[in-house]
Write a structure and sequence with these properties.
By secondary structure, this protein is mostly helical. It is 58% helix and 7% strand. The protein is built from 18 helices and eight strands. The strands form four sheets. The chain has a two-stranded antiparallel ribbon with strand order 1-2. Strands 3-4 form a two-stranded antiparallel sheet. Helix 3 crosses helix 4 (99-116), helix 6 (138-175) runs parallel beside helix 12 (360-384) and helix 10 (270-297) packs antiparallel against helix 11 (326-350). The model has no long low-confidence stretch (mean pLDDT 96).
Length: 466
């Protein structure tokens, strides 16, 4: 493959002749052969949008002429369109602050903009630093880019996925509202609930998490853009920040705003930590729901078997006809990843020093991964599993009818101690509560029948039907 020679402040570097990236990107590719993981397309596209908005802002403040601004915007649009994806291969584990990724964007945009103006790659009619990076530093733009990318990913991917999940759970709650089953605490039999009540609870959990996510996401709207290297706004022209924010909001309709305290915003990663914490909360809640559904689905013979999840693929390479709760298991694993990502973000956040946190690349990689993994896992689980869950009503009825803890309903009438004796005799003699109560002559048959109606026990606040 033919090469071209480019130069940076350290000297000459060989770069593939057909590459749009330049010397600093090539150095990063050579130096950081670490994981094979790159920052996500979502992040790269957000950075391209940032560069476009910066070019417009610099043009409006008179620092960048029309021709150069137009060329930078056009090149940025090509990145946003996906035609230059192959130019962004810098490892996610790279030099601190994200300078390598910022320069990757700067060089690709500069070379493509140079072509648009009639030049050739490496000629730099548009300069990566002087023009594409005008009024900017990695220190403000990478941080701001993560806020932009994360907020867009949450609003476009995760929030809709959670809304659909909550809706599906509420639908199932209505579908199962009259199916009475044994409630369980400590994994032991307890007083009855309906299957619908359990699913209604799950829907409430998701709605609560969505509210928390939206509240924490608001912090991402505050950007340290224009702070440049240390928050002093050095080399950023008067009016640049306002022009940038106006341009960004015109493209995203997300109501981004300039940081009230740019020194705080540039060195502090609180918004990122808050968002990651919200994602962890979602993961914890989804793990609980997934585990519950796996328990309720367990069987089909020796488990609870109160629900049946749809069969989506064979469950064993050795046991014929075995079917596993594959999508619930997948959801668990995705949630474990998100919980682990939150720890990485926490550690990276506390590693900030003085005017800058240099651990931004690993925070970006993990935060965007968490959002995208959660959204994808939720959508797959919702569409391929939750929607097809069926209730095994006969099994639910059979178990609740044999539940000795139903005697709890009799305690206001015969007292706690006598109710406990009844429950023990039910266990020992393998009889029904009704049979034992009548044998002990504690109540009449009519009274027992009225008090032990499982539907009334599951919905004590609902008026009795006449």
């Amino acid at each position: 493959m033919a090469d071209r020679i480019e130069k940076d402040t350290l000297g000459e570097v060989k770069v593939p002749a057909n590459a749009y990236y330049g010397a600093q990107t090539q150095r990063a590719l050579d130096n950081f052969k670490v994981s094979g993981f790159t920052l996500q397309k979502r992040f790269i596209y957000a950075y391209a949008l940032l560069k476009k908005c910066a070019a417009v802002a610099n043009n409006r403040t008179g620092k960048l002429d029309d021709e150069k601004a137009h060329a930078i915007c056009s090149a940025s649009d090509e990145i946003l369109g996906g035609s230059l994806d192959s130019e962004f291969s810098v490892d996610a584990f790279q030099a601190g602050a994200g300078t390598s990724t910022n320069m990757n964007l700067n060089e690709v945009i500069a070379n493509r903009a140079t072509e648009i103006l009639g030049g050739s790659r490496g000629q730099y009619l548009i300069h990566p630093n002087d023009h594409v990076n005008m009024s900017q530093s990695t220190n403000d733009t990478f941080h701001a880019c993560l806020h932009i990318a994360a907020l867009l990913a949450i609003s476009e991917q995760l929030a809709p996925a959670l809304e659909k999940l909550a809706s599906s759970l509420e639908f199932k709650a209505l579908e199962f509202e009259n199916i009475v089953k044994t409630g369980r605490t400590h994994l032991m039999d307890a007083v009855p609930v309906t299957l619908g009540q359990e699913f209604h609870g799950y829907a409430g959990i998701i709605k609560s998490n969505l509210k928390y996510l939206n509240e924490s996401s608001d912090y991402l709207k505050e950007l340290c853009i224009g702070g440049t290297a240390t928050g002093t706004k050095l080399n950023a022209s008067q009016g640049y920040i306002d022009a940038f924010i106006e341009q960004l909001n015109s493209h995203t309709a997300m109501d981004f705003r300039a940081a009230a305290n740019i020194f705080e915003a540039q060195q502090n990663t609180e918004a990122i930590v808050k968002s990651s914490n919200a994602l962890k909360s979602i993961a914890v809640s989804l793990t609980k729901i997934s585990n519950d559904l796996r328990l309720l689905n367990s069987g089909p013979v020796a488990g609870l078997a109160e629900i049946t999840m749809p069969a989506v693929q064979p469950g064993s390479s050795i046991m014929p006809a075995k079917v596993n709760p594959s999508l619930a298991e997948m959801l668990n694993m995705a949630c474990f990843q998100v919980i682990g990502n939150d720890l990485v973000i926490t550690q990276a956040s506390q590693a900030g020093q003085l005017e800058l946190n240099v651990m931004m690349p690993v925070m970006a990689f993990n935060l965007i991964m968490s959002i995208e993994v959660l959204a994808g896992a939720i959508n797959s689980f919702n569409e391929r599993c939750l929607s097809g869950i069926k209730a095994n009503e006969g099994r639910c009825t059979s178990l609740v009818d044999r539940n000795p803890i139903l005697v709890t309903a009799l305690t206001p009438y015969i007292g706690y101690e006598k109710a406990a004796l009844v429950a023990k005799e039910v266990y020992v003699q393998n009889k029904t509560i009704k049979e034992v109560v009548l044998e002990m002559k504690l109540m009449s048959e009519y009274e027992v029948d009225c008090l032990l109606d499982p539907k009334k026990l599951a919905k004590p606040d609902k008026p009795s039907e006449k």
